[in-house]
Amino acid sequence: MYIGFDTSNYTTSVAVFDGEHMINKRRLLTVKSGERGMRQSDAVFQHTVNMPSLISEISVDKNNIRAVAVSSRPRNIDGSYMPCFLVGINSAVSVSKFSGAPLYKTSHQVGHILAGLYSIQRLDLINEPFVAFHISGGTTEALLVEPDNDEIITAKIIAQSSDLKAGQAIDRAGVMMGLPFPCGKELDRLSLLSEKKYKIKPSMNGLDCSLSGVENKAKKLFKNGESKEDISKFVLTYIANSIDEMTQRIIDVYGNIPIMFVGGVMSNTLIRNQITKKYNAYFAEPDLSCDNACGIAIYAYLKDRK
Question: Which candidate, 1, 100, 151, 283, has a CA 20 to 30 Å from the CA of 197?
């Protein structure tokens, strides 16, 4: 058995992988009504409360635990740090010491990528270069992923949003309209009720996009009395067109390279449909696009095999 822990800013997660089957337990953190996020101290407290009950839902013989892994930082780069990951680290260290199994540390982002590969049944891609888009509340990046003997994979940013992130744009628009945070699911539902057609030219600088304009325009639409359905569709169309243009420009530079999309934003219907129709790309299942510990358990599995 391989156990993974992930305590991101909005989800407490534990996963167990036996080499074939996955058990995935997670709990969303509670954000106060009207707020667009939470303080790290609040996230740490909620993770601390959630973790014991999640672990109690998993029945594992300690003698069968071969390896434990945890996301200890947002990205595998110097200076990448968030206090909320300390709860996952402490839990992983405890399980490792109790079971005698080795402990491996990686990043939340690597967990997203490996969960995506597991979802599309292409873990073999860790042996060759590919592009992974990580589109979430805190990240709008295209990553060149390459094999690595020590870290399993490395992820280098080749394109990103220069300002606002896709998930931030969605949540800010949603909170402005009085929707519960995080706002992705409700914005998705509302957008599908709109019959408006928007022609939006993305703001680009090379391979990078800019998303700050979507928030400003959404505010104007809201002040002008536009419906929530139309505003939702505008915001998601703006983001979809930006991701679309980033994808095309990456293909122009890197050629016919495998491309995969992960992150909570990529579970959105409008965005996913637009990219699917145009590109032969891989998409993680919605359940494995959102924050989860599955990719971290996969990391333990891969490190143990090495």
Answer: 283
Angle, vertex CA 41, rays to CA 93 and CA 88, nearest 5? 20
pTM of whole model > 0.70?
yes
Can the peptide bond before residue 182 be classed as cis, meaning omega within 30 degrees of 0?
yes
**Helix (H/G/I), strand (E/B), else coil: 22:** strand
Q: What are the CA-CA distances from residue 89 to residues 11, 17, 18, 26 (Å)?
A: 15, 18, 21, 16
Tokens 């505010």 belong to: 219
pLDDT tier, 22 (very low <50, low <70, confident <90, very high otherwise): very high
160, with CB counted inside 10 A (0-12, 13-18, 19+), is middle
Calculate the alpha carbon distances from 150 to 1, 68, 110, 153, 268 in Å: 21, 16, 13, 8, 34
> Which residues, in sequence order, are CB contacts of 296 under 8 Å at separation 6+?
4, 5, 6, 13, 15, 69, 70, 71, 106, 111, 114
Q: Which two tokens stand for residue 12?
A: 């407490």
Question: What are the pLDDT digits (tens) for 267-278?
Answer: 899 999 999 999
Question: Which strands, in side-by-side order, build the sheet including 130-135?
Answer: 152-160, 140-148, 130-135, 259-262, 282-283
Does the pLDDT at position 168 exceed 90? yes
Mean pLDDT of the chain: 95
Query: 73: Cβ–Cβ under 8 A, 6 or more apart, which residues?
Result: 80, 81, 82, 85, 107, 108
Q: What is the DSSP letter of 266?
A: G
User: Which pair of tokens denotes residue 28?
Assistant: 């969303």
